[in-house]
What we know:
Largest sheet of chain B: 5 strands, parallel
Helix content of chain B: 40-55%
Strand content of chain A: 15-25%
Number of strands of chain A: 12
Number of helices of chain B: 8
Distance between the termini of chain B: 18 Å
Oligomer: heterodimer
Distance between the termini of chain A: 13 Å
Low-confidence stretches of chain B: none
Strand order of the largest sheet of chain A: 1-2-5-4-3
Number of strands of chain B: 14
Mean pLDDT of chain A: 83
Amino acid sequence: xxxxxxxxxxxxxxxxxxxxxxxxxxxxxxxxxxxxxxxxxxxxxxxxxxxxxxxxxxxxxxxxxxxxxxxxxxxxxxxxxxxxxxxxxxxxxxxxxxxxxxxxxxxxxxxxxxxxxxxxxxxxxxxxxxxxxxxxxxxxxxxxxxxxxxxxxxxxxxxxxxxxxxxxxxxxxxxxxxxxxxxxxxxxxxxxxxxxxxxxxxxxxxxxxxxxxxxxxxxxxxxxxxxxxxxxxxxxxxxxxxxxxxxxxxxxxxxxxxxxxxxxxxxxxxxxxxxxxxxxxxxxxxxxxxxxxxxxxxxxxxxxxxxxxxxxxxxxxxxxxxxxxxxxxxxxxxxxxxxxxxxxxxxxxxxxxxxxxxxxxxxxxxxxxxxxxxxxxxxxxxxxxxxxxxxxxxxxxxxxxxxxxxxxxxxxxxxxxxxxxxxxxxxxxxxxxxxxxxxxxxxxxxxxxxxxxxxx
Amino acid sequence: xxxxxxxxxxxxxxxxxxxxxxxxxxxxxxxxxxxxxxxxxxxxxxxxxxxxxxxxxxxxxxxxxxxxxxxxxxxxxxxxxxxxxxxxxxxxxxxxxxxxxxxxxxxxxxxxxxxxxxxxxxxxxxxxxxxxxxxxxxxxxxxxxxxxxxxxxxxxxxxxxxxxxxxxxxxxxxxxxxxxxxxxxxxxxxxxxxxxxxxxxxxxxxxxxxxxxxxxxxxxxxxxxxxxx
Lengths: 456, 229
């Protein structure tokens, strides 16, 4: 998941949490505020009523001789006021607030009520109980409106900030995106590095970009040095070989050359040829290991195999060897070097011909592995390889005699190259053999590791 | 044929020069970038054999320079020991006519030069007749004897063609093998395959006409009898 998406997601989640918290907390708070507000109003009313009683006397509300309650409602029955005279000597009590249903005319309604006992004093000969009520319906209506309003504001604010944050993050992370798309993704070779500075004011990105550039420069320069070194070594080693080779060719053309010397020159030529191949093998392996080859083409196995087999057709027929290829199905290496892969298969098959018996058979089979990779098996019907020799097969330049006196030499060059190329493509190469049963070379392209995997 | 040989290594230069002179080429020499550049500007050549690592400059620049000069119609064959760059050099559009990695087999080199000449001058059906009635058509890749096809496999044809091209010369098994299978890294024991091919070619030719056209040179290799086209 991309950083930006994660950021947006976490942002949205916290906002959602905030909204939920609001939905939980706002109603009781609003309720409480509304009640406080009502109580406050009731207290003010009480003060007003007491002022009236003080000015006009209790008699203005209640007749002195009769102890009946005075009650007054406003028109919509949202508030009421009642004054109940009490017997003299009733002790005054604290102001109480409570909620109670009261009957007004024929209807029963819930009221928030302030109730207190006013002691006898000037203006009022007797103590009385004062009750002022405010209809809870009104309060409820108010709190509901408030709650709704608060929630809407919260949701709207959250949405707005989520969008704003995502937009800002998108803008802020643009350098990182550029960095990833242009500098990291799809880079398969140091020569493809892109060194331009990414436009950004963010210090962290600036540092990341500069650090990355410095590292890539270092890598590229190391790569260049390696290549230069290899090129120089090639030149230094192969030029003398060239001179000798040309000289031998010239000498052989001399018609007056005695036969003995001619044979010696041919022998020297063969030695030189071996030296040349050794140097070239070392260079090839070094160059592959130093990533001097591109791995940039999708290469299917079946056509490559067909090419190789056609190339080796004459040798195979000379030894009466049959071959059967069965790839179920064909496998395409997504990122490969076609000519190296050709060399790899050529080495395996040329060995399978060379180390086979006259009139033998070669079976090339390929199928996917349960782990999601692909396995190519090249099986011959030759004399096989002694178990003790199996681990040595891929050692560079180790020559040993295959079982049987007539077995040709030459495992020395082909297999180390094959293994280096296999590793270059993220594949494993190993041999299985039982003396007398032939040998099988197994090439396994991994699904999990290596550049051979399909990039997602 | 006028050839400019651009190679800085004196010994190698000397050997190549000798070989080309023997093969009846006119050879001009350049050992440095400056020398080669000047000669390319002044003279006109049929072939330039170009080593890439030159004192004073890169051979590829020389090639580019020469390609911009309309007067210069030489065919370029690039020779290089820069093994690591094989892929890249081939991949670049250099305008070279051919490319040979060092060490270069001189026989292979002269074959390539002949092939380029044929291509360049568009010789129509350059049929070669040899050994009493055989006619070889290198373009169509056929050999006929008095109107009858001689059925050779691809490799057999290549082998015979190479011998015919270098008629009168001894070719070693190594040289023949390298021509047949290219510059692959292989052990010389593989040259046994050459003997089998030669045997088959001889048998097939003998079926049409008893001939000793391919001669075995003891201890060295094989030679096609000399003849004039």
